[in-house]
């Protein structure tokens, strides 16, 4: 199979074994500390990295909820190269050849966006993610940053996305939606805006 | 479950070769008759021919791909002519034409959408419950631009990946079979064809081809692949 589709298959693989659940219109409890409201039907699943919703498949449209990333953690657990470093190499005192990009509670808003674009670009097959716009915003009243981005992975289908990030109780809350630039981004953007605006974060 | 295992399972799901050569999903078995004989726009096929190495990786072969493209184009034209379908071939636009990029992106979207349909819409793959059992994938409103410039009502998109077992892989297959009783995967022909309603952008018919035979480098074999791939194409 073509290597160009590998990043797409990787994205699908992220959600391969957790079964998808139907997300019906109404209030949706994502975790003990987060809840949103949607007016559409989605397929969704959650794991240690957060929650993913999609309508036509994770390679086409993806709504991602990262809820409470702690200081010093990577956006995806699989990107923690030090933690995932081969234990035999660790015994041999060999260091990994990369350094993880980790969230820090002291990051500026620009640094948070850079943390996201670098991490997401790595997941998408080591491709650059371009920030198209940034503006001050908020998540459930907590001051944060809104950003819009685009990238073209190796499958050559351009993706566009937008998200809002905020630090609450020293933890990062970052919700973003992306879809094919030619169709799915516009198809679900208005609904994604409403879902993000409905997010309620329980502090403590 | 470990990430490598999940990856392997997902790739297997995505690439699994079913006992049946083709499987179809559709929302219609007839073309809409708003005009006496609807016209189908034949989009350039997205195909790649490659060699399966001893280690199980595929290596793209540009020469084979060019030959395959020529054979597939001839076979698709002949098949549609045989069906007495009213059709025309998509004429590639100049790169500075503003529609060029849009049409290219539509083809890429078809490729990615096909992977998702293949992964989620065909049992026993775990589907997307939000779809509520409906087959409702689309390429979106940009398809209407194809209708405007060609007076076609439908477009036929084809995506094919053909891989051939290398001599090294064949030796590995024999060794694995003799030593461990294991059958290693050989070359595969995987592809799909979609008929898209240009007014709505919806995929109204989708046919999946997945098998361990076929050779697009040979015109006769390419004709057989196209006949199989387009089985049940709405008329």
Word description of this protein:
The complex is a heterodimer of chains A (204) and B (235). In chain A, 21% of the residues lie in helices and 37% in strands. Chain A has 4 helices and 11 strands; from the N terminus they run αββββββααββββαβ. In chain A, a hairpin with a 6-residue loop joins strand 5 (50-54) and strand 6. By secondary structure, chain B is of the alpha/beta class. Chain B has a single domain (21-229), classed as Rossmann fold (3-Layer(aba) Sandwich). Chain B contains 6 helices and 8 strands. In chain B, strands 1, 2, 3, 4, 5, 6, 7 and 8 form an 8-stranded mixed beta sheet that branches. Chain B is globular, with a radius of gyration of 19 Å. Mean pLDDT of chain B is 85; it is low at 1-19. The chains are: A alpha+beta (204), B alpha/beta (235). Chain A binds chain B through residues 1-3, 5, 8-10, 12-14, 16-17, 19-23, 41-44, 54-60, 78, 155-158, 180-184, 187, and chain B through 1, 3, 5-7, 9-11, 13-15, 48, 50, 58, 60, 102, 105-106, 108-109, 111-113, 115-117, 119-120, 126-132, 137-142, 161, 163, 190, 201.
Layout of strands and helices, then pairs:
The complex is a heterodimer of chains A (204) and B (235).
Chain A: H1 6-14, E1 21-23, E2 26-31, E3 34-38, E4 42-47, E5 50-54, E6 61-69, H2 87-91, H3 109-123, E7 130-139, E8 142-151, E9 159-168, E10 171-180, H4 184-197, E11 200-201
Antiparallel strand pairs in A: 1-4, 2-3, 3-11, 4-5, 5-6, 6-10, 7-8, 8-9, 9-10
Chain B: H1 3-15, E1 22-26, E2 39-42, E3 46-52, E4 58-60, H2 62-82, E5 86-89, H3 98-120, H4 144-150, E6 154-165, H5 167-180, E7 189-197, E8 203-211, H6 219-229
Parallel strand pairs in B: 2-5, 2-6, 3-6
Antiparallel strand pairs in B: 1-8, 3-4, 6-7, 7-8
Helix pairs in contact in B: 1-3, 2-6
């Amino acid at each position: 199979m073509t290597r160009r589709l590998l990043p797409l298959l990787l994205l699908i693989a992220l959600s391969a074994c957790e079964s998808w659940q139907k997300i019906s219109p109404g209030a949706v409890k994502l975790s003990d500390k987060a809840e949103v409201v949607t007016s559409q039907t989605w397929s969704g699943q959650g794991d240690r990295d957060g929650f993913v919703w999609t309508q036509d498949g994770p390679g086409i449209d993806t709504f991602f909820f990262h809820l409470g990333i702690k200081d010093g953690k990577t956006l995806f657990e699989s990107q923690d190269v030090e933690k995932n470093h081969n234990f035999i190499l660790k015994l041999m005192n060999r260091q990994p050849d990369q350094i993880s990009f980790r969230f820090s509670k002291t990051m500026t808003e620009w640094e948070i966006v850079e943390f996201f674009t670098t991490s997401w670009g790595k997941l998408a097959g080591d491709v650059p993610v371009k920030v198209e716009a940034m503006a001050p915003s908020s998540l459930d009243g907590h001051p944060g940053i809104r950003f819009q981005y685009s990238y073209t992975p190796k499958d050559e289908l351009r993706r566009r996305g937008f998200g809002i990030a905020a630090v609450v109780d020293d933890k990062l809350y970052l919700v973003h939606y992306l879809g094919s630039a030619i169709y799915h981004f516009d198809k679900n953007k208005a609904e994604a805006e409403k879902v993000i605006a409905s997010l309620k974060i329980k502090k403590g | 479950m470990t990430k490598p295992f999940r990856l392997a399972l997902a790739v297997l799901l995505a690439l699994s070769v079913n006992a049946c050569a083709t499987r179809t999903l559709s929302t219609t078995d007839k073309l809409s008759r708003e005009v006496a004989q609807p016209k189908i726009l034949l989009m350039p096929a997205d195909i790649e021919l490659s060699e399966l190495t001893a280690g199980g990786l595929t290596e793209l072969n540009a020469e084979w791909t060019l030959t395959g493209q020529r054979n597939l184009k001839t076979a698709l034209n002949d098949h549609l002519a045989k069906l007495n379908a009213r059709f025309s071939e998509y004429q590639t636009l100049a790169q500075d034409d503003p529609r060029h990029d849009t049409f290219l992106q539509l083809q890429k979207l078809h490729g990615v959408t096909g992977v998702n349909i293949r992964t989620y819409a065909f049992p026993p793959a775990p589907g997307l419950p939000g779809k509520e059992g409906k087959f409702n994938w689309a390429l979106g409103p940009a398809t209407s631009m194809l209708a405007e410039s060609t007076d076609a009502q439908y477009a036929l998109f084809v995506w094919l990946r053909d891989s051939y077992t290398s001599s090294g892989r064949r030796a590995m297959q024999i060794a694995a079979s003799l030593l461990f009783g294991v059958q290693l995967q050989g070359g595969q022909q995987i592809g799909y064809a979609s008929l898209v309603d240009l007014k709505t952008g919806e995929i109204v018919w989708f046919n999946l081809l997945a098998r361990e035979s076929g050779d697009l480098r040979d015109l006769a074999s390419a004709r057989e692949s196209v006949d199989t791939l387009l089985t049940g194409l709405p008329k």
